[in-house]
Amino acid sequence: DADVTQTPRNRITKTGKRIMLECSQTKGHDRMYWYRQDPGLGLRLIYYSFDVKDINKGEISDGYSVSRQAQAKFSLSLESAIPNQTALYFCATSDRGGDTGELFFGEGSRLTVL
Amino acid sequence: GQNIDQPTEMTATEGAIVQINCTYQTSGFNGLFWYQQHAGEAPTFLSYNVLDGLEEKGRFSSFLSRSKGYSYLLLKELQMKDSASYLCAVMDSNYQLIWGAGTKLIIKP
Fold it and tell me: Are the beta carbons of B46 and B37 closer than 8 angstroms?
């Protein structure tokens, strides 16, 4: 089983719908992240959380919200999806932010907004 | 602004050596990462450099020159399974990762 699990893996939805992407991890890491990946662009950070009570906006947080329900769970919501939110979304965890800060990624959630 | 540049695509032959370059301009520097990403899969960590010089790990090596804002990933004895995208990322002064768009490496027999 994967250490970082994302659900759903694929979702097609319509403009204006609310969508939630869920992420759970068994690595025991405090830090969790949501990224989106678009063709020809680098990974872009949406939100990150360093512990259950800590939520921070990333580079492209507009149109998104997050919830850190527990150390192991971090969900991403699109309140009213729009077509330019069509992308591959990755959840990631890390043990620490300084030093090496290696990221461990989930398998990705491919979202299509029609 | 902050910027990471790497070639979009490279082609190499099985058994050969390939060098993937990465240049960066960031607000501060707290380390450079290389990740491998196979098509449709998650990125996986390859290497981390924070000091100048070469770090070797099996068939893969990574080099850093902080004064030049430059790194490369060297892959030796290429195998077909090395066909993937290679992502360069720099940790800036706020410990945020800035990512390049990735280099797609195509290995031919």
Answer: no
Closest to A90 (Cβ–Cβ): which among B42, B48, B100? Answer: B42
Q: What is the mean pLDDT of residues B7-18?
A: 97
B96: three-class secondary structure by DSSP: coil
Alpha carbon B83 to its chain's center:
14
Residue A38: both structure tokens together:
């678009």
User: Tokens 């050969």 correspond to what residue?
Assistant: B16
Instruction: Count Cβ atoms within 10 A of the Cβ of residue A23 and give its class: 0-12 exposed, 13-18 middle, 19 or more buried.
Output: buried
Contact call for A45 and B97, based on CB within 8 A: yes
Q: Is the peptide bond before A8 cis (omega within 30 degrees of 0)?
A: yes
Q: Other CB atoms closer than 10 Å to residue B99's CB: what's the count?
A: 22
Taking CB atoms and an 8 Å limit, are A105 and B48 in contact across chains? no
H or E segment to which residue B108 belongs: strand B103-108
Residues A44-76 have pLDDT tens digits of 999 999 999 999 999 999 999 999 999 999 999
Distance CA B81, CA B92 (A): 31
Handedness of CA A33, B41, B44, B10 (dihedral sign): negative
Query: How many of the other CB atoms lie within 10 Å of CB of B28?
Result: 12
Structure tokens at B23: 């240049």
